[in-house]
Amino acid sequence: MKNTSNSPFVFDVSDPMRSGMVEHRTQTGPSPTRIGPEMIAIPEGYDVTVDATLTPLGEAIMVDATIQARLQGECVRCLKTITPDTTLTVSQVFATTPDFVVGDPDDEEETEAVPLIQHDMVDLLQSVIDEAGITLPFNPVCPDGCADDAEVPGLDHLDDGSADSDDSDDSDSGAARSIDPRWSGLEKFL
Asked: Smallest Cα–Cα separation from 48: which of 137, 124, 140?
């Protein structure tokens, strides 16, 4: 996974760690890697804006960040390209030493390591990747519905739960009209 010093996810925390004062920073730059699930993601190189609050915690720093970016993906219904904007929120503590947060020594489930501050820098990339994997849809669809979305004739009665007496007559022409032609290949399985 690529990550460079011009990444919008990398913050120099030397000033807030020295002063002990909370700082707010905004950084914009290209995404160093593709971030998101298979069907929709922030592509590598797309601009990302990170608004971060850096809060010193003694031998650690908490970074609360809001990430804004444009996504690129494919609608799973019509396969058209979609490019919605997204906002992700992450909170991550970075420690100066690996033993900053010590949990119950008898609790074997608490083995998650706190990321470290390295050379007065913190990198939010992994936190953003994790949040995108949880937040972004695995099956994205067109925001305003697909252009080909249309009601299937003869199935209006399913919307309100009642059937018209006119719809109960299954003539061959009525049944043919109510079947979506894209599903015609499934008839052989019935």
From this structure: 124
Q: Please tell me whether residues 119 and 162 are part of one structural domain.
A: no
Higher pLDDT, 11 or 173: 11
Kindly state whether residue 141 falls inside one of the protein's structural domains.
no
Q: Which domain holds residue 72?
A: 10-135
Asked if residue 127 and residue 179 are part of one domain, the reply reads no
Same domain, 34 and 102: yes
By the 10 Å C-beta count (0-12 exposed, 13-18 middle, 19+ buried), 88 is classed as buried
Residues in CB range of 140: below 8 A, 6 or more apart: 39, 40, 73, 74, 75, 76, 82, 84
Give 99-129 pLDDT, tens digit per residue. 776 566 666 665 577 899 999 999 999 999 9
Compute CA distances 146 → 50, 80, 165, 179, whole Å: 31, 9, 32, 19
Q: What tokens were used for 152?
A: 């299937």
Residue with tokens 């007559």: 169
Q: Which among 124, 50, 43, 125 is positioned nearest to 84, based on CA atoms?
A: 43
Is 0.85 topped by the overall pTM? Answer: no
- Do 178 and 119 share a structural domain? no
